[in-house]
Amino acid sequence: MSVMLFTDAFAGLPETGSQAPDFALKSNPGINVRLSEYRGEVVLLTFWASWCRSCRTAIPKLIEMHGANTADDFHIVGISLDDDRNVTQRVSAEMNITFPVLSDDRHNVAELYDLPDVPVTLLVDRTGTIRFIHRGFESGDEQLYASEAAMLLSE
Amino acid sequence: MRSLATQLICAATALMAVLPVVAADVEPQEGIVIEDLPYGQVLYEYYQEDYFRSLTTLLVEEDMGRMPDHAAEAELLRGGLYLSYGLHRQAGEIFERLLAENPEPDVRDRAWFYLGKARFQRGYIKEANKAFKKVGRQLPVVMEAERDSLQAQVDILRGDLGKAEQIIDQWEGPEDWSYYAAYNLGVALIKADRIDEAAIYLNKVGSIEAATEEMYSLRDRANLAMGFALLQLEDGAQAKVALERVRLNGPFSNAALLGFGWADVAQENYREALVPWLELSSRNRLDPAVQESLLAIAYAYRQLSANQQAMEGYAQAIDIYEQEIDRLEKAISAARSGELVESMLSGPVEGFSRWNWALEDLPEREETRYLIELIATHGFQGGLRNYRDLKMLQSHLLDWQSKLDVFDHMLEGRVTAYEAAMADVPESLRQDTIEQYQARHLDLQERLAAAERNRDIVAVAPAVQQQQWARIESIDTGAGDDAATHKLGILKGLLQWEMEKDYKLRLWQQQREMAELGQLVEDSVTGFDRFETDIAAIPGDLESFQTRVTGVAPRVGELLGQIDEVALEQVAALGDIAAVELEEQKQRLLRYRAQAQFAQASIFDRSIDAEAGL
Amino acid sequence: MKFKRLNTFIRTLLTVLLLCAAQLSPAENMALDDEVQTLKQQVLNLNRELFVLEEELLFPANTQVVVFVSMDVGKYFTLDSVELKLDDDDVSSYLYTPREADALLRGGVQRLYTGNLKTGEHELVALFTGKGPNGRDYRRGATINFEKAIGAKFIELKISDRDSKQQPEFVVKEWE
């Protein structure tokens, strides 16, 4: 499994302002989760994988963000691109991930979103529109995410 | 003079018509056998609370006539969904039409019930009552509770409190619906000065074990109403009992704090009264309860003869009131210009399927906290909902516009494909080829028939024999060569005998082959005909689709335009409502300020008199 | 009265409170309200027309084939996924969320797949997975050979345990 999923940089991620393509994936506890069921609420989607270093930096920050969140209409959802669901589960447990992690082991959703690489973080508003897209992760980004989320929640 | 408490309680009762906050006002019957799959699809979307999609599917399937066995149910559901969508008038029409068709008792009862509900929501109480009276015993159990609750409310509004009491006292079944009715009854009894009776109902509602926000809210309101009613009777102790039950961190806590203070005052404990009021005064100044507390505090100091603190209190109150009056004036002009409402409504709302907007859903901005009273009014809620719905529809229509573009391209593509296909038709499917086959077959058939008629053994003989025969016939031995002639005669005879022998068999074989060939030709003809009709249909189909697509596009555009217009009108109307409300708030503050100034003057005068030894 | 001001305050408060309690009046601006309702109705109608056009264009009645999924099982069966193969082509692979599975349990019917087929023989292979009452995993398949004639074809895949208690199976019904 190569480190880069696609060689093309910034291939064709959906544009901000467009509807987030809908999908359904199985989450860690085995429940199926469909993106469109979050309509009316705000979602932070983060694509990651166990072999991606900056993802491993991002995840703990997101866990903190999840812990600090008091709004019941804001959700953080992780989408793992590991080929093996067991690996996803193991790594999630190791990292103590508290938010739901979905397994995109067949990479259907990665293709749907035309992911150039990981991590990619998207903020989706209450109407299902993608409002912010972030590629990569650096310490401190989580604050930007938090204020973007706050803005979307106020709508 | 209206305080926050009033507004919130007002809001509660104003919203009574559509409470509890279920997103749809109708429940389809569960457990019925699905005879038409599309009806099941409508239910599938409905159960997921996707009401707009459910309604759309319902309309499409009814139009296509694919739910014949569920006609009545589908109509009921459609009426109910219309009702939830705010189309009261249209819903009423659906139910009336359904009733006119003399339906089955269970359908009939539900239709009367929904009709009553539609009328109730439009404010036609008498008519609603008439409809409810027509509902028999066939109503599903889950709806009985709602029916009783609505009936009680109707009775209250008609002034028949006794009937309402009866309904509530004899309540069976799920309690939740009864609480709404009990609350309304309690409030009506207060108005009728029957506080003791009111207490029974309001205390009951005020002590329920709440599990949902709606129930908590209802409980708070009941306690608040009870508390303030008791305050009117100056029963401070009992008022406190009720007010204590109001949630500390709920939307009504400020009103409750205000009430606490007054309860203390009723018991002449002015010092105690300061406690909740001082707490209240430190809270959000946009809140009218907080504004009142400033006056109340100064009043309490005055009662405690702490005149200096009282003066300071009034001075501070006046200060704050003037600041707020200033702010209000700015807000009023923002409201009149439409700015205020627009800022409330900013943010995309398209695609949002849930139709009900409660206080909690509104953005957490300064101006909106400010407008809590305003927002809660029935008029504003209605207008807000209209706006949201229109925006959602607009978004759908925009989606359709892009889709229609796609259809256009698709159809163009199909036309091109058709033309290309026609240019490339295989030989076997060409008209002239087929005609050739047919002609040849006919020819062969005729020759075979002639052969049979004339018992022409040569005609059906195999080629080799035919050649031999032809050769023999053409040989002229000439006169005199008897041996040759004789030999020829024998050959001929032999050949003839061979051909005779096989004649029947060969005839039969060839006739069978002919029949098979005939079938083949016929199949080709049929195939060609079918191909022809299919192909012939295509240009017509394509053209009719193109006409439909081009025909519908301008209508989409037109409706989009109308939505824009009406939405703007709605925003303006909301702005007007907002301006009126804010103006009232300003007037209230002006009155408070005047009271504070008057009180100041009064203290001042008294102190002068005191100094002067008067 | 000692509490003159108190009295006035409370009295006015309650008057307004009760006044509005009685007030279930319709929206203040009736004309505008009616305009909105009429417009909404028009859009709903147009919306319907557009959906019908779309269906006829993309899935004409003669070639249309629709596969529906329904359930008739005890409450403790949770549907997880359904996969469909039509003439060896994977046409659907659907994961059911708790909300969707619940809607099916309550009697809803899902339109899983809509497509076009030529007249003649076709093969549908369906597979469902789920969890039963004891947390036991279920996986059942069915192969349906069917004839497509002229006219829309509906195939209902009902997951049912009626005939074999607590052992859900596919019960297939064809509708024409």
What secondary-structure arrangement, pairings included, does this model have?
The complex is a heterotrimer of chains A (155), B (614) and C (176).
Chain A: E1 24-27, E2 32-34, E3 42-48, H1 53-68, E4 74-80, H2 85-94, E5 101-103, H3 108-112, E6 120-124, E7 130-135, H4 141-153
Parallel strand pairs in A: 3-4, 4-5
Antiparallel strand pairs in A: 1-2, 1-5, 3-6, 6-7
Chain B: H1 4-14, H2 37-47, H3 51-64, H4 71-84, H5 88-100, H6 105-122, H7 125-133, H8 141-157, H9 161-169, H10 176-191, H11 195-206, H12 213-232, H13 236-244, H14 253-266, H15 270-281, H16 288-303, H17 307-337, H18 339-345, H19 366-370, H20 372-376, H21 378-423, H22 431-453, H23 463-474, H24 482-611
Helix pairs in contact in B: 1-12, 2-3, 3-4, 4-5, 4-6, 5-6, 6-7, 7-8, 8-9, 8-10, 9-10, 10-11, 10-12, 11-12, 12-13, 12-14, 13-14, 14-15, 14-16, 15-16, 16-17, 16-24, 17-24, 18-24, 21-24, 22-24, 23-24
Chain C: H1 4-22, H2 30-58, E1 64-72, E2 78-86, E3 89-95, H3 98-105, E4 110-116, E5 120-131, E6 137-148, E7 153-160, E8 169-175
Parallel strand pairs in C: 1-7
Antiparallel strand pairs in C: 1-4, 2-3, 2-5, 5-6, 7-8
Oligomer: heterotrimer
- What class would the helix/strand composition of chain C place it in? alpha+beta
Low-confidence spans of chain C: pLDDT under 50, at least 5 residues? 18-27
Shape of chain B: elongated
Query: How large is the share of residues in beta strands of chain B?
Result: under 5%
Task: Supply the number of helical segments of chain C.
Answer: 3
CATH fold field value of the largest domain in chain C: Immunoglobulin-like
Nearest-angstrom radius of gyration of chain B?
A: 45 Å
Number of strands of chain C: 8
Nearest-angstrom radius of gyration of chain C?
27 Å
Mean pLDDT figure of chain B: 84
Largest sheet of chain B: none
Strand share of the residues of chain C?
35-45%
Helix content of chain C: 25-40%
- Runs of chain B in which pLDDT lies below 50 for 5 or more consecutive residues are 1-23, 347-365
SSE string of chain B, helices as H and strands as E: HHHHHHHHHHHHHHHHHHHHHHHH
Q: Give the N-terminus to C-terminus distance of chain B in angstroms.
A: 35 Å
One letter per element, helices H and strands E, the order of chain C comes to: HHEEEHEEEEE
Domain count of chain C, please report it. 2
Helix amount of chain B? over 70%
Mean pLDDT of chain C: 83
